[in-house]
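Lab notebook, design round three. We kept the backbone fixed and only want residue identities now. Task for the bench partner: fill in a sequence for the structure below.
Input structure tokens:
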């Protein structure tokens, strides 16, 4: 009897153990199934969110194209992409634009200029200043350097003309100024200038110029480099002609003095019929503070909303995603 009981006890233990193992396996299977379902739901939500975002982007793009073609049409059609529909609307908001600069200058009064001062000696020197040997290589554009960043900007002024010195060896505008920092040298070397003007031409055609500098200089028309006189070099003069449209043209000049020797900069047009008027950056920009377009795309598991703010010409747009 005792032997029989022992056998039955062993069989019952085996059955219980099998039940426990089976329950554990079932729990694992159920857990995997739950995880799979959650992953599937998460993936579906992610896919919906991504599709909603691109649908909203597409709708804004269509609306911007419509506004560029017709500035007065603020009714936008819905856009459907991959089964998701986005609707766009024009949002009236004020106070988002930076104020335009004061552009009320007398015609023919000269050039708007901004000046920059760098350090060329000691541990804090600018790496492009007082390099020995001074590199003569050119760079395609002035803004490729940081020389004209606000970090180095000291002031702005109106220059009636850009023929600063009859020679190109002794122009040091910071000498004797409130920003003077000679760093123990004979002059306040290591500086830059940027001039900008609206040049009104009586007719379309080629107009001759003179550009001379020690060291770098560039001449731009409409933001495009036309004459490149860059590089760390002795006084060098370039002459020629550039094409100007009849009417207003935005002309810019950049200059940098980077070595402790001579310094000079001269520029002029030879045609006295050109009217040169100071034209700071931002003049002529017709900024419209209310050109905000919002688009919302709604899917079954996600909603995305984006906004574009642009000027009246649908340029210089800024983008942000909004909370739906």
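Proposed sequence:
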């Amino acid at each position: 009897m005792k032997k029989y009981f022992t056998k039955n006890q062993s069989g019952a233990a085996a059955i219980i153990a099998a039940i426990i193992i089976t329950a554990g396996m079932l729990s694992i299977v159920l857990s995997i199934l739950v995880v799979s379902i959650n992953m599937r739901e998460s993936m579906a939500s992610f896919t919906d969110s991504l599709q909603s975002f691109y649908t909203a982007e597409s709708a804004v793009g269509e609306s911007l194209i419509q506004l560029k073609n017709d500035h007065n049409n603020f009714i936008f059609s819905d856009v459907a992409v991959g089964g998701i529909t986005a609707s766009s609307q024009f949002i009236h908001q004020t106070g988002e634009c930076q104020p335009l600069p004061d552009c009320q200058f007398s015609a023919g009064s000269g050039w708007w200029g901004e000046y920059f001062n760098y350090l060329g000696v000691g541990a804090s020197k600018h790496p492009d200043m007082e390099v020995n040997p001074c590199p003569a290589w050119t760079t395609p554009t002035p803004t490729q350097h940081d020389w004209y960043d606000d970090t180095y900007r000291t002031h702005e002024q109106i220059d009636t003309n850009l023929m600063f010195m009859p020679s190109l060896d002794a122009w040091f505008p910071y000498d004797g100024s409130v920003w003077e920092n000679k760093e123990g040298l004979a002059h306040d070397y290591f500086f830059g200038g940027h001039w900008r003007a609206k040049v009104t031409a009586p007719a379309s055609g080629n107009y001759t110029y003179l550009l001379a500098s020690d060291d770098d200089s560039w001449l731009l028309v409409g933001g495009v480099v036309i004459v490149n006189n860059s590089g760390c070099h002795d006084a060098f003069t370039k002459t020629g002609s550039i094409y100007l449209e009849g009417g207003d043209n935005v002309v810019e000049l950049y200059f940098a003095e980077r070595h402790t020797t001579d310094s000079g900069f001269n520029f002029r047009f030879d045609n006295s019929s050109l009217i040169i008027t100071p034209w700071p950056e931002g003049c002529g920009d017709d900024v419209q503070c209310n050109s905000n377009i919002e688009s919302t795309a709604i899917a079954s598991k996600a909603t995305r909303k984006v906004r574009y703010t642009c000027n009246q010409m649908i340029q210089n747009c800024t983008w942000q995603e909004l909370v739906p």
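Keep this in mind before ordering anything: Residues 111-278 form a domain with the Jelly Rolls fold (CATH 2.60.120.1560).
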